C-alpha cells in the first residue's frame, strides 16, 4: 500500500516538474469530469435496467399518442446525453474542432431534454387544472420567455468560451471553459419556472382537498407534488 502511494506521489511530482501549472490543473479537471460522468452513467444504467421490462411492457400495450412520444423523448434522451458525454471525456480528442462538434451535439441534446421534460410537466399541470387555457397560456409564455433568455445567455457564453484539451499524454477528453454567470442565470430562470409549476400544482391540490375534504397528504401524492419538488 505504501509502495502504491509512493508511486502515485512520484508521478504527481514528475507531472508537476515536466508540465506547467495550467496543464496540471486542466488534467485534474478532466479526470474529475470523467470520474463524475462514469458515476452518472452507472446510476443511469442501473435505473434503466431496473425498470426496463415493466416500462416497455406498458409502452407496447398502450396506443401511440403525442404524449407517449413526448414521454419516450423525455425518458431516453438522457441516455444519449450520457453516451455523448462519455465519448467527450474518454475518447482521445487532440483536435479542438472535433471536440467542439461533440460539445455542440451535447448542447443540442441538453436543450431537447430540458424542453421535453418541461413540456411534459406543463401538460400534467394543464390536465390538473381541467384544461384551463389561461393557465396554459401563462405557462407557455413564461417558458418561451425563459427559453429565449437562456439561449441568449448560452450564445454569449459560447462566444466568450474556448475548448480546452490536456497537453499531458494519457489524459483524454476535453471541455469548454466559460463563465459561470451565464449558467447560473439560466439555472435560476429554470428553477423559477419549476417553482411556478409546483405552486400551481399545490394550489390545485389544496382546492381538491377543500372539495373532497380528504387527507391532504393523499391528494399531494396523487398530484405528484413531491415528485415535482424532488425534480426541482
Word description of this protein:
- This protein has 232 residues and is mostly helical.
- The chain is built from eight helices and two strands; from the N terminus they run αααααββααα.
- Strands 1-2 form a two-stranded antiparallel ribbon.
- Strand 1 and strand 2 form a beta hairpin.
- It is globular.
- The N terminus and C terminus are likely disordered.
Question: Main attributes?
Answer:
globular; mainly alpha; disordered C terminus; two-stranded antiparallel sheet; disordered N terminus; 232 residues
Overall geometry: globular
Task: Encode the helix/strand succession as letters.
Answer: HHHHHEEHHH
Which structural class do you get from the secondary structure elements?
Answer: mainly alpha
**Low-confidence parts:** 1-9, 226-232
Number of helices: 8
State which percent range the strand residues make up: under 5%
Amino acid at each position: 500500500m505504501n509502495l502504491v502511494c509512493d508511486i502515485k506521489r512520484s508521478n504527481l511530482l514528475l507531472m508537476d516538474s515536466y508540465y506547467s501549472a495550467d496543464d496540471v490543473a486542466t488534467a485534474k479537471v478532466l479526470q474529475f469530469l470523467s470520474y463524475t460522468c462514469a458515476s452518472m452513467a452507472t446510476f443511469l444504467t442501473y435505473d434503466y435496467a431496473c425498470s426496463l421490462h415493466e416500462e416497455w411492457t406498458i409502452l407496447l400495450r398502450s396506443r401511440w399518442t403525442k404524449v407517449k412520444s413526448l414521454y419516450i423523448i423525455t425518458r431516453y434522451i438522457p441516455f444519449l446525453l450520457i453516451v455523448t458525454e462519455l465519448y467527450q471525456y474518454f475518447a482521445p480528442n487532440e483536435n479542438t474542432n472535433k471536440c467542439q462538434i461533440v460539445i455542440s451535439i451535447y448542447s443540442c441534446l441538453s436543450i431537447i431534454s430540458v424542453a421535453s421534460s418541461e413540456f411534459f410537466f406543463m401538460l400534467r399541470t394543464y390536465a390538473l387544472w381541467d384544461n384551463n387555457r389561461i393557465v396554459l397560456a401563462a405557462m407557455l409564455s413564461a417558458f418561451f420567455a425563459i427559453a429565449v433568455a437562456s439561449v441568449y445567455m448560452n450564445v454569449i457564453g459560447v462566444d466568450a468560451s474556448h475548448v480546452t484539451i490536456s497537453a499531458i499524454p494519457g489524459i483524454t477528453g476535453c471541455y469548454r471553459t466559460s463563465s459561470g454567470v451565464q449558467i447560473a442565470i439560466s439555472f435560476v430562470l429554470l428553477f423559477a419556472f419549476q417553482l411556478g409549476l409546483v405552486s400551481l400544482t399545490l394550489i390545485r391540490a389544496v382546492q381538491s382537498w377543500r372539495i373532497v375534504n380528504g387527507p391532504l397528504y393523499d391528494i399531494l401524492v396523487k398530484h405528484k407534488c413531491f415528485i415535482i419538488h424532488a425534480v426541482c
